[in-house]
Amino acid sequence: MDTTSSQHSRRVTQTISSTPTIPSARKTPPGPRGHVLLGHARELQHDALNFYLRLAREYGDVARMRLLSKTTYVVSHPDGIRQILQKSHGNYDRQVFTYKPLHPFLGNGLLLSDGALWRHQRRLMQPAFHRQRIAGLAMQMTGAAAAMFKRWEQRPNQDEPLDMHEEMMRVTLCIVGMTLFGLDLSDEQHPAGRAFQTMIGALAEYVFFPFPPLWVPTSRNRRIRTALETLNSLVRDLIQQRRQQQEDAGDVLSLLLLARDEEGQGMSDQQLRDEIISLLFAGHETTANTLTWACYELSQHPDLEQRLWEETEMVLHGEQPAVPHLPHLPYARMVIDEILRLYPPSFALVRRTLVDDEVCGYRLPANHLVWANICAVHRHPAYWEQPEVFDPERFSPDHPAAGVHRAYFPFGGGPHLCIGNSFALLEGQLLLTMMANRYQLRLVPGTPVEPVSMLTVRPRHGLPMLLRARAFRAGRREQAPAIEE
Prior knowledge:
The chain is an alpha+beta fold. It contains 18 helices and 14 strands. Helix content is 47%, strand content 11%. The strands form 5 sheets. The chain has a 5-stranded mixed β-sheet, with helices on both faces. It has a 3-stranded antiparallel β-sheet with strand order 4-12-9.
């Protein structure tokens, strides 16, 4: 394993103690004291990822913390998370105050809705995310990646580094816009593209610090409101156009417009708007971050990058991948799975207790917030050997690690399992395979790489990388010359 990468992983994360917690039944969980007025709000705003890892390391399976005056609980054991998300999910809901800043943006889409509304919408939307339907979107995914590569090849200075986080954000935005409603939102010349990118840039800041509220006319709020109005206008115009056409255009919006419940009723314009905007946010930055971290980890492990390239070369022979290729590209999927372990899209999921519950031997009182500490469980040494190390072999189909089936929640779990998980995995595997088959990537020397937890886990300073196209010789692609460190 690459020594530098191992040291980096240990520096930016905190290993969780493997010593099991054996609490007395119904005992109140331990936890840090926090600020007398703010509780632990400052720690969460400054570095939520490492704060959640520290809670697991220092306080065990269940910890207590405060958000201002509100006591909340953090569960860092896979059995406890499975109880909250799946086995006893009826004891919890998602009516939590931390989601309130998101409502002006996402409305009552699947990401924020709950109860009867959520069940109704989930049933209506599920056919649009059937595995076969998702597979039909693969050509749009590979087409967007091919267009990105062409743009890279036409750069005037091929020796200039590219910020891979920006590039992955751009290509996944193109893909999500095209597959949802046939519009390339990565085009900054398009008003909708500019509006959405403004929203993405401002949303994380606003959610973590929603003061003053949106109705106060500060420069930030005016920028957000203008972008939101532009995006709302676009989506509503698209909905009206599609209602008049009454045909399946092959994208997700078409399927949602055609969906009917048991009584023959479809979605209202407002509900369609909320679902489309929610899918835009959920399907964009999460996959972009996964691919960004894959580029980073592979650049730090040239032997694993070589193995991935050899797999793609053997299967694809330099051609573009398609869905039938994917079963023959298992290592690419193993890399994606390992990245989702180290850098999960949602590092912590929040619920509210409806009744008193007991989790891992601790009492969780009713009407309190509970956080499922996904990032900590994904690094729990009782389930993952050397958990801070990037090792795709953990997900080998023949010899999976213990945590694969017991301590792995990249898309949540239970009834609220992410509806777009198949979409994200397909997109990630296709784009990673295409990049590995065409390019060798290396981090610009001296670049600091630090995960920062916003709404998702992204590199704080971007990810500037040097690219070398893999060369063809005698009709076959050869290993590119090594990039000097």
